Fold this sequence. Notes:
Number of domains: 3
Order of helices and strands: EEEHHHHHHHHHEEEEEHH
CATH superfamily of the largest domain: Intergrase catalytic core
CATH topology of the largest domain: hpI Integrase, Chain A
CATH architecture of the largest domain: Orthogonal Bundle
Strand order of the largest sheet: 1-2-3
Low-confidence stretches: none
Distance between the termini: 91 Å
Strand content: 5-15%
CATH class of the largest domain: Mainly Alpha
Structural class: alpha+beta
Radius of gyration: 27 Å
Number of strands: 8
Number of helices: 11
Amino acid sequence: xxxxxxxxxxxxxxxxxxxxxxxxxxxxxxxxxxxxxxxxxxxxxxxxxxxxxxxxxxxxxxxxxxxxxxxxxxxxxxxxxxxxxxxxxxxxxxxxxxxxxxxxxxxxxxxxxxxxxxxxxxxxxxxxxxxxxxxxxxxxxxxxxxxxxxxxxxxxxxxxxxxxxxxxxxxxxxxxxxxxxxxxxxxxxxxxxxxxxxxxxxxxxxxxxxxxxxxxxxxxxxxxxxxxxxxxxxxxxxxxxxxxxxxxxxxxxxxxxxxxxxxxxxxxxxxxxxxxxxxxxxxxxxxxxxxxxxxxxxxxxxxxxxxxx
Length: 309
């Protein structure tokens, strides 16, 4: 009796969700199962028919990890394009950071091991090695989340039949609680007659005063251009990235923030005759002040304030 090319059947997962799978036979006559990732039988059937017609019913489950994971988060990759097509945002900066973790930390460890043969024990061994480098638990958790995405996608697409990350536990968070300025500190840094003497120059004073007055992110203040300033109002349209320049804000929204007339007039006075370009700039608005410059002067000024206190 001739074997069927494939058989479609439902599976109830541990979370109660029903997913359709299909079984077929490889070149050695061995029966193989793959997930369609579909919850609807008609959609699953069409999906499998398309695979059958293209000759790709049997997937390469022995795909090496290094080939599967390298630049997984690139803007041109399947994962990010899928996110963007579904209406989500995924910045180039995020792609770069995630790819750096995978390319520099995960691939050198797992190398060309078949992704379907990587076990929870292998991942625990990787985590142990990462922990030995002295990084915090919070950083370890970030790396777990990044690598987990790859295995979640491999499982969702049927490239692996078992997701080893289903058995990986997170580390206890050791994130330090961030403090806030006291009223006394704010008064000394920004509101006293000697406040400006604490700062390196007018630019860093106004930059930090705007931050503490509005709660804007550093990149958002860097991205401010003259046209974003109006009477008593700041329009936040972008954030700034040193590599990619202007980009969308973290929330991907445009918002308007009221500012005091005193601060508005101070910024106008700082701009002097200039009517275009970046507001906080040392080269007439061509590029914004660097993040490091702001950080260094803030730490220096805050240190002076503590000495004065």
